Amino acid sequence: MNNRILVAGKIALLLLAAAPLPAAEMTRLDAKPGAGTKVRIEGTSTIHDWQVQGPLILGFMEVGPGFPLEPGQTATPGKVEARVQARITVRSLKSIEKDGSPYSDGMNEVMWEHMKQPANPSIYYHLNELVLKEAPKDKAGPYVFDAKGELAVAGKTNQISMPVNITPLGDKKLKITGDTSLKMTDFGMEPPTKLGVFSTGDEVKIKFEWTVGPKAAPAAASK
Asked: Which of 96, 62, 101, 94 has its CA nearest to residue 80?
């Protein structure tokens, strides 16, 4: 009997040792539309430089324990636990003048057509890896990261890397900014041209500002 109890105890200990550890609790931060969020695409043509801009980045970010959520929080450089799913509706992108005023409905239609908008109404980004490179130099400064992820545009997905700055705003709100250069042809898009009038450069620069934070608590029901 004692031997059976001893064997059973050893088996139980082995099972406990082999059991997976519980996943670290993640903090979810949702997109905050209108809270300083925008995405901008800049390019060139034989006539003039151009820019389009959108006010909406949808999605969420999840971060693990120790992620710097508050200004001045201590953080160790290296890979951090984070997930991001972001989405931009193509038709939210519209051409603008350098001062931000609307430019051309015709250019909007051409842009949406070349981005294959009817079949692919959204641009998607999925984060694969986030590495903290540099902590802020002061309490109000940003944490500097390298981000690697997948970007899907016009129905084609590519791996991209870019530097990202994340600034805690307090109350677990984060301002995320970044920029990178891409080629339209890498995503199966032909740069717009018009015979004898203009041609558009293949390379474009994407800049974004994205604010995320905890979901607002539901308002108390009135009595």
From this structure: 62
- Specify the pLDDT at position 12: 44
**What's the rounded Cα separation, in Å, for the pair 156 and 162?**
19
Q: For the chain, which domains are there?
A: 23-213 (2.40.128.110)
Report the relative pairing of strands 198-199 and 193-194 from DSSP bridges. Answer: antiparallel
Closest among 40, 24, 49, 16 to 201, alpha carbons compared: 49
Three-state DSSP at 3 gives: helix
**pLDDT for res 217:** 64
Q: Output the pLDDT for position 36.
A: 83
Beta bridge partners of 46: none
Residue 97 has what pLDDT?
A: 95
The Cα 27–Cα 128 span in angstroms is 17
Q: Three-state DSSP class for 212?
A: strand
CA dist 82 and 62 (Å) reads 5
Q: What is the pLDDT of residue 195?
A: 58
Kindly indicate the confidence band of residue 20, based on its pLDDT and cuts at 50, 70 and 90. very low
Query: Is residue 122 classed exposed, middle or buried when 0-12, 13-18 and 19+ CB atoms within 10 A define those classes?
Result: middle
